[in-house]
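W.,

You were right to be curious about this one. When I first looked at the sequence I had no strong expectations either way, so I just let the prediction run and decided to look at it fresh. Below is the sequence, 428 residues in total, followed by the output.
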Amino acid sequence: MNFGSIIHAMVIDMNETQLKTVAQLRAFLAGTLEVKFQPIRNDAERYGFIATVLGRFAYRRLVRADKGVLMRYLARITDYSRAQIKRLVSRHLKGEPLAKRYRAPAAGFARKFTAADVKLLAQTDALHNTLSGPATKCLMQRAYAIYGDARYARLATVSVAHLYNLRHQAGYQTTRAHWTKTRGYAVPIGQRRAPTPDGRPGFIRIDSVHQGDQDGAKGLYHINAVDCVTQYEIVATCERLSEAFLLPVLEQILAGFPFVVLGFHADNGSEYINYTVARLLEKLRIEFTRSRPRHSNDNGLAETKNGAIVRKHFGYQHIPQRFAAPVNAFCQDVLNPYVNFHRPCFFPEVLTDQKGKMRKRYLLKHMMTPYEKLKSLPKAKEFLKPGISFTQLDSIAYAISDNEAARRLNEARTKLFQSIHDRSKRAA
């Protein structure tokens, strides 16, 4: 019998009948470790080859070690597993002919439960709103044994495990399938529209900024609120976005604006779209709006300030939640005064063309701080909160220069981060 082997795409013909001793088999196996044989694909030929080799080497008279060599040789040539070779050798030693013991059934396996049974099961489940498997089997047994419904003759004998198999069949799914439109769920909190300040300050946009994760631990959260008209901005920090931590920060933010807050606009995050925040705003008579789908600019101002203010001064690195209090103090004492009284912003000049399309131009002459923008509004004094005057605000705005405010901000931020680093290192 000739067998082909492939070595580096070169075919070699070999007459294995020349191998007549176990020593030759050892040499053959040791010298052909890199040879990958093309196994015999025909089972009848492989069975015949195994019987021939076992007879030629007198397998019964071999010692244990030599039998192992012969088994490895048979596995190499036939590509059978060692377990399969052992089974075939055992059958040969018993005098049984090596041949296939199995054959495919002529007409496949007979099905006990018909398509009508599957459909009947689906109808039964529809009537009883799909009970558990044992309960459904009990119903079908009762239908056949007590009420004499012959349709359940076969289903009454079904096992609970196979009942679940029948429920997954295509006929069951087709019978039970019903199509409905997707039901939208509208949260009756806030109006889905953009704020309409009409040139008045007090309509704020708000968003949350997460200060990174580390080793599965959440960082603290910054709450960033920006006025639509003046870009007056209040940044505050809390440990978590739960009611216990977020509500005090929201009250602090609303109190931080020098003018009366008239509108509160957020995206659709659950930290803001909930009844607790809605009750707080209703109590203060503040209009509550939220972003519309497919209108990314509804909260665009807050998103822009997240990058220009929050990320620029705090970065993206993880800050543990336990440092929320000192970070919040830094925001109220240093960051917010600098942003509102000393950091200039662009304010657009809006032009409307003949087609009614609005175009914005950002000119250098329109650049000013948020506080200066507030003062430049017509009848600006009418928007201030009771007890607050521009004289008081001027004393804060012009107490130090812009450069001095920036220097103090940088020093305070460096001191804050150094403190966070030192305390985190000691805790570790």
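Here's what jumped out at me. The longest helix spans residues 402-427. And, maybe more interesting for your project: The chain has three domains: 2-93, 115-175, 195-427.

Coffee later to discuss?

I.
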